[in-house]
Design goal:
single chain, about 70% helix
Length: about 170
Amino acid sequence: MRIISIIAALAMTAFAASSCGILGGAAAGTTGAATATNVSTGSTNGQAAGAALKALYAQYKADGNKLNMTNLTNIVNLTTLANNVQGLKGMSNKTDFYKEFATGLVMGSNNLVTQNNSNSIMNGLQNLVNNVDLSGLQSKTENAAAKGAAALENATTIANSVSSILNILK
C-alpha cells in the first residue's frame, strides 16, 4: 500500500511539473530541462545577489550613505553581487532567466527589493553588469584575504554604480 502511495505521489508531481511548464514548453531550440535549469539558476543567482545587496545596504547606511571600498566585507559582498549578476549580461526583461532573477532578488533581499522598486533595481544591475568592469573584484577579494587590501583600479566607478542602486532602496 505504501509503494502505491509513493508511485501515485511521483506521478502527480510529474504531472504537475509538466503542466506548469517545468518539463516542457521550452523556447525554440532548447529543451525543457535546459529551460528549467536556466530558470533555477536565475532564481538562485537572484537570491544570492539579493542577499549581497541587503548586506551592502546595511553597511552603506551604517557608514552614512557611503560605500566603503576598503571594507573587506563590502568587497566580498560586491564580489558575490558581481558573480551573480553575470547571467543578466545582455538579457532582456522578457526572458525567463531575467524574470526568475528578479523574483529571487526579492526573496534574497528579504523584501528590501520590492515590486515598487524592482524595475529600477534590475535596470541598475543590468547597467552595472553591462557597463562596469567587475573583473577586478574577485582578485581583490583573494588578494585582500591573503595579504591585505590592494587598490582596485575602478573602485570609484563600481562604488558610484552600486551606490546609485543602493539609493533606490531608501
